[in-house]
Write a structure and sequence with these properties.
alpha+beta; seven-stranded mixed barrel; two-stranded antiparallel ribbon; about 35% helix; extended
Length: about 290
């Protein structure tokens, strides 16, 4: 069993549920070291005192906040722990909200919440089942590794999932970042065809159908170079569709999407027909053997 990266209590009303926090995701990563170009010399980073030029051990490093004018306020790790709300061990649910009301923009990272001990497993299960029945999530704040997080706690099958979230002031205003954005589409025909295309390309969400092809290509590249071989991928970059060709492009896309959908359904019918034929053949063979 994995080791909890944080442990504490979910508090709602007068109820406290001891839980542990566990990583729910992992990213595909290819490790690369840095080298000076044209050599086999590794590039390494060191924590160096800029005044003395000497390397400083990690345990001798403290944090300092720039208050302007070249002045810094030094803060010790113990001081940060002392001011942490609930001594960093409390997931205090403030309110319960409908999951559908939360904009996915706020979600940051997923974690599993597990019961801390068998004695309190029933309290854990009760909260999980109540959240699932109401389709709601608990909104809470907690401190982990020197940072306060906003979080949702929701049910997902047999487990409680905690999603760390961005605070409202951490989400940038699109108008400030992107400037003026296009107004609503003026062409009813274009909008209607775009809706048709979305409907034609719609399907069930199947996460296992998607793979990290880029990471696989990086692995293949490294393997080929190690073997002294050259590997080349040639793919054309997409070009923007001319506004005058938009309707034609939409129409062609809808037709292509419908053909693909039909092609996916056809093999299923053929397979079913083959199975039926096979069953009939098997029955005939069995009847012949019996008669013989």
């Amino acid at each position: 069993m994995a080791r909890a990266i944080w442990s504490g209590y979910i508090n709602f009303g007068l109820v406290s549920v001891p839980v542990g926090l566990y990583s729910a995701t992992q990213e595909h990563e290819i490790d690369f070291h840095q080298f000076q170009k044209g050599t086999s010399d590794r590039i390494r980073y060191k924590r160096v005192n800029e005044r003395t030029g000497r390397e400083v051990p990690y345990e001798k490093i403290v944090k300092g906040h720039d208050v302007g004018g070249g002045e810094y306020v030094i803060v010790e790790p113990e001081e940060l722990d002392d001011i942490a709300p609930g001594k960093s061990r409390s997931l205090e649910i403030d309110t319960f909200v409908d999951l559908d009301e939360i904009d996915p923009m706020h979600f940051q990272k997923s974690y599993y919440l597990g019961p801390k001990d068998g004695d309190n497993a029933s309290s854990y299960g009760l909260l999980r089942d109540a959240l699932a029945k109401t389709n709601r999530a608990g909104i809470a704040k907690f401190v982990m590794r020197g940072k306060e997080y906003l979080a949702t706690i929701r049910a997902d099958g047999k487990v409680l999932v905690l999603e760390t979230m961005y605070f409202a002031d951490e989400i940038r205003d699109p108008a400030e970042e992107l400037g003026e954005l296009p107004r609503k589409s003026s062409s009813g025909k274009q909008l209607s065809m775009a809706v048709d295309l979305i409907e034609a390309m719609s399907g069930e969400w199947k996460p296992t159908a998607y793979e990290d092809t880029y990471t696989e290509r990086v692995k293949e590249l490294v393997k080929s170079k190690h073997a002294g071989k050259e590997i080349v991928y040639s793919e054309e970059e997409p070009q923007a569709t001319n506004p005058t060709d938009l309707v034609a492009a939409l129409r062609a896309s809808v037709e292509e999407a419908r053909k693909k959908r039909t092609a996916k359904k056809t093999p299923t019918k053929k397979t079913a027909a083959k199975k039926t034929t096979a069953k009939k053949t098997a029955k005939k063979s069995a009847a012949k053997k019996k008669a013989a």
